[in-house]
Amino acid sequence: MPVKVELGTKQRMRDGVKLSADIFRPDVKGKFPVILTRTPYRTVEGFQDAQNEEARFFAQHGYAYVIQDCRGKNDSEGVYRPFLDDDRVDGYDTVVWATKQPWSNGKVGTVGASYAAWNQWQTATLRPPGLKTMVCTVALPDPVLNVPYQNGALVLWMSEWMALIEGRRNTKTTSVNDPRKNFWHLPVRSIDEQFGRKDSRIWQEWVAHPSADRYWRAAFYQDKLDRVRLPVLHITGWYDDDIIGTHINYLAMTDSSRDEKTRKSQKLIIGPWQHTVNVKRKLGEVDFGESALVDLRGTKLRWFDRWLKGADNGIDKEPLVDIFTTGRNSWSKGPLWPYPNARPTRFYLHSKGRANTCSGDGTLSTAKPASEPDDAYAYDPGDPAPNIDDDGNLAEGPFDQRPVERRNDVLVYSTPPLADEVEVSGRITVSLFASTSRRDTDFWAQLTDVYPNGFSMHLTEGIIRGRYRKSLENAQLLRPGEVNEFPIDLWIISNAFQRGHRIRLDISSSSFPKYDRNPNTGNAFGQDSELLIAEQRIFHDLKHPSSVTLPIVG
């Protein structure tokens, strides 16, 4: 089917601001269903060509494909304010506009990844007429759960990119300085100067709002998902640093929706992928096999054909959950996620007081601790534990964690070699009993799969800032020396630990530069140039049974 392309068409929003879109549609007479994506990424290197190619594909299959620049991006008027209300309302107005075009049959589906998935959900909470379905890939969650903050800690590298690079009208320019040098800059509030963006409005606002206050609550959508009654295709990867957004959204639409039809029209796909899904079968040293890459475009086409064209192609009658289990490296198809036969099992931390490094005496077992000495380490924000991959870059994959686990400020707890395969599929949580010598600090945890040769494959990790241990809204500083329980959310995995492998939990206080360094002062966020060393103690005894809960299948 021939394709007609219209570049730079304008859509007027309710406040008079004109947004710009490129339209790809069949070059024949008729009215067609519309696929809409609203993106801040149009000027990212390589992104436009890939998006244009996808737009042509869908136009050739009988769709009008609209690619709109978000407000303040590329050729659109206005000011870009990531996460704030403009996207929600602009999405509504654009869906309504799409239903009224002479080439539209009035049915609209939305598509997009990352921020372009986040703004789909924002739009859907307003229930615009004509919106019939969504395809959401690696959707960002509410901004206090992942970006820019994750449980009180600033997700430094991703937030810098969004605020200081993506925040420009054109995203191509990266930084006037070496980004790795910028990560170390203090105070955090003036990092924008290092990027040549002195007094960046976005950065300054974000630094001023580190808690779940009114500023961020205005950008929440996950507390409004009961308003959304649409079929949704949810896509993410185990090594997507935003995976928790897809997980929460899927559960809200399947478990919490009051509408039975909505509950039964949600499809979930999780592969062994990074944030750029379905691109590589091999990440670092780990090859997940030929089945790791799938025909996602074909799945999207079938999804839109079903919900925008009414095609009886059976996609809604197939198993609606496709999960790739690492370790076994195979797909499982079924009706539900999390798996109903996954049994939450607590593994307790044990040691003789020297769990430091992977050569220490830390162990994990289902036996409850009785009387055991605590473990201790010094967290020095001037020399934080790193978050790196095999090449020294920021990690988002199954990279070997032994370089981190050899550090004295990392506690390591491992099971004995497993006698049989153990599948862990679902939500991972850590309950950590700890004290610190400072008024504030961070605690970080990581789960790995340890091979017989010692290779420690990263699976998932999480962090909690001490002052937000009880509430992300109201900060409560610590009392030096007082033992507190710190809940650490490690999100979700599906991994089959093979016979002879070991399950391992790492504990520390940093993973830099993924997260900013807590300076341990207890002062207002982002203002410190001073760094203090914190003496940390981790407890695992009858009164303080530190543990990790693993959902074990079968």
How would you describe this protein?
With about 550 residues, the protein is an alpha+beta fold. It folds into three domains: about 5-140 and about 220-335, Alpha/Beta hydrolase fold, catalytic domain (Rossmann fold, 3-Layer(aba) Sandwich); about 150-215, no CATH class; about 340-554, Sandwich (Jelly Rolls). About 20% of the residues lie in helices and about 30% in strands. The protein contains twelve helices and 25 strands. It has helices spanning about 45-60, 85-100, 115-125, 155-165, 180-185, 190-195, 200-210, 215, 245-255, 260-265, 295-310, 400-405; strands at about 5-10, 20-25, 30-40, 65-70, 105-115, 130-135, 150, 155, 230-240, 265-275, 280-285, 285, 320-325, 330-335, 340-350, 365, 375-380, 410-415, 420-435, 440-450, 455-465, 485-495, 500-510, 535-540, 545-554. It has a ten-stranded mixed sheet with strand order 1-2-4-3-5-6-9-10-13-14, sandwiched between helices. Strands 15, 16, 17, 19, 22, 24 and 25 form a seven-stranded antiparallel sheet that branches. Strands 18-23-20-21 form a four-stranded antiparallel sheet, with no helix packed on it. β13 and β14 (about 330-335) form a beta hairpin. α2 crosses α3 (about 115-125). It starts with a strand and ends with a strand.
